[in-house]
Amino acid sequence: MSTWRRELQPGDLFIDVGANVGVYAIWAAECGAEVIAVEPSNDSLPRLRENIALNGYDITVLPVALGPTKGTSPFTVGLDDVNKFAFNVSGPVVVSVETDTLDDVIGARTAAGVKIDVEGAELLVLEGAPVALKEHRIRLLQLEWNDTSVRTLGQDRRPVVELLGASGYQLFRPDADGRLVPAIDPAYGSDVFARPL
């Protein structure tokens, strides 16, 4: 979060993908950013909206999942803050949610920041932003960087590294003060940031 305190300026656009109950969304709003919070989970949406109201910020909430295309996708319910795309799950713990793309959310604008924490499906969100990534209209990305992608998509983080590299983005990790330090082929651990070269 100290990285965002350094990076965000009043009036910047910040998109919180996988907003959950709004910790990052509210943090970005406190920095003066215009915030779009994306959260498809009916478990989290009421608390997200309540936290936004309690803090008095004008944050746009989009109750959709972001992926490679518009449409619908299976999504878990009842798992609190770890609900996710449910490609290999069936039964009463799965519902259909509306999906959109990050390109559609950004439109013709430039996002100063995009945080993506979607329980291992970060690649799918990035696949829905080919235009914004190619045109470098996302100035800084934050990505969850653990092994949940193996459980959700059946793959490690290598495809994310390749997609971002092909789009001209370099990977970083923050130091203790939130300054970004280059991270070449980072191992699982703390979140990774990416910005255009």
Distinctive features:
Rossmann fold; three-stranded mixed β-sheet; 11 strands; 197 residues; eight-stranded mixed β-sheet; alpha/beta
Task: Explain what you see.
- 28% of the residues lie in helices and 25% in strands.
- The protein has 197 residues and is of the alpha/beta class.
- It has a single domain, classed as Vaccinia Virus protein VP39 (Rossmann fold), CATH 3.40.50.
- Strands 3-2-1-7-8-11-9-10 form an 8-stranded mixed sheet, sandwiched between helices. It has a 3-stranded mixed sheet with strand order 4-6-5.
- α3 links the parallel β2 and β3.
- The protein is globular and about 45 Å long.
- The model has no long low-confidence stretch (mean pLDDT 93).
Task: Give a nutshell description of this structure.
The chain has a single domain, classed as 3-Layer(aba) Sandwich (Rossmann fold), CATH 3.40.50.150. It contains 8 helices and 11 strands. The chain has helices at residues 2-7, 23-30, 45-55, 102-106, 122-127, 130-134, 148-153, 158-166; strands at 13-17, 34-38, 60-62, 65-66, 71-76, 94-100, 113-116, 141-143, 169-174, 180-182, 192-196.
